[in-house]
């Protein structure tokens, strides 16, 4: 499919991906669109079905996986997550830059497709800061915090693998991280904005 290149945002749970992507969606209306993933986890307070995720159950999601409706799926912290073909097509059909929020296994799966996105890893300054953010968000049980921290340690090691990401942004100061993110996406943003004007 032609159009702007999609963007994959990855990085440990709690590093700040959703915070940054929500800023992009708010500041660049008509430029970005979010690829709404499926998940079998329960919604958090304030999360909206069809907007934040398609909340589903394992049986229904497995059926859709078996019929080839997903680009990629992964088990994360006891739940299934996945990007459907429709989620990406819906955004790209509107000519928008499609943003995908996926874990590092999702990144590796997407690398095997022809999507050709810009790969961005959002990393915390340290595992201690990440733990503080996860606890501060107050959305996870102690068991889930521990499993997310375990996954984070692996992600923090693997993110520097040569060729895996186009950029690794250490999200210490939020404004600085947002500047870096806008800067790496500048070319695609301009492409869409100029398309809108003409
Ligand atoms: N630069 C920052 N400094 C301080 N706090 C931050 C920063 N960036 C994000 N946070 C806070 O850290 C918490 C986790 O951020 P966020 O929910 O965006 O993470 P995430 O990477 O999207 O996590 P998940 O993958 O679990 O959805 C939030 O409470 C957010 O407000
Ligand atoms: N491989 C995929 N990973 C995904 C997808 N959607 C979200 N995620 C990742 O899951 C964890 C946990 O997310 P949370 O919302 O429960 O905190 C996080 O790392 C996301 O990036 C997906 O479609 N595929």
UniProtKB/TrEMBL annotation:
The keyword Disulfide bond does not apply. GO terms for cellular component: cytosol; photoreceptor inner segment. It is found in: Cytoplasm, Cytosol; Photoreceptor inner segment. Its EC number is 2.7.4.8. CDD domains: GMPK (cd00071). One of its GO terms (molecular function) is GMP kinase activity. It catalyses: GMP + ATP = GDP + ADP. PROSITE patterns: GUANYLATE_KINASE_1, GUANYLATE_KINASE_2. Keywords: ATP-binding, Cytoplasm, Kinase, Nucleotide-binding, Transferase. Gene3D superfamilies: P-loop containing nucleotide triphosphate hydrolases (3.40.50.300). Residues 4-186 form the Guanylate kinase-like domain. Pfam families: Guanylate_kin. The keyword Disulfide bond does not apply. InterPro entries: GK/Ca_channel_bsu, Guanylate_kin-like_dom, Guanylate_kinase, Guanylate_kinase_CS, P-loop_NTPase. Transmembrane segments: none annotated. Monomer. Interacts with RD3. PANTHER family: GUANYLATE KINASE 1 (PTHR23117:SF22), GUANYLATE KINASE-RELATED (PTHR23117). Belongs to the guanylate kinase family. This is Guanylate kinase.
């Amino acid at each position: 499919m032609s159009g702007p290149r999609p963007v994959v945002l990855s990085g440990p749970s709690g590093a700040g991906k959703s915070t940054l992507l929500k800023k992009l969606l708010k500041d660049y209306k008509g430029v970005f669109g979010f690829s709404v993933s499926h998940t079998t986890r329960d919604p958090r307070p304030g999360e909206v079905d069809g907007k934040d995720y398609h909340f589903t159950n394992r049986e229904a999601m497995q059926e859709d996986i078996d019929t080839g409706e997903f680009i990629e799926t992964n088990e994360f912290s006891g739940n299934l997550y996945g990007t459907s073909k429709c989620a990406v097509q819906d955004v790209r059909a509107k000519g928008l830059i499609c943003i995908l929020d996926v874990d590092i296994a999702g990144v590796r799966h997407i690398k095997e497709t022809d999507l050709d996105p810009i790969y961005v890893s959002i990393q915390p300054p340290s595992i201690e800061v990440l733990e503080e953010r996860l606890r501060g968000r107050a959305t996870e049980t102690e068991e889930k915090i521990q499993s997310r921290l375990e996954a984070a340690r692996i992600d923090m090691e693997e993110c520097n693998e040569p060729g895996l990401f186009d950029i690794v942004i250490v999200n210490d100061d939020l404004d600085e991280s947002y500047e870096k993110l806008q800067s790496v996406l500048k070319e695609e943003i301009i492409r869409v904005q100029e398309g809108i004007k003409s």
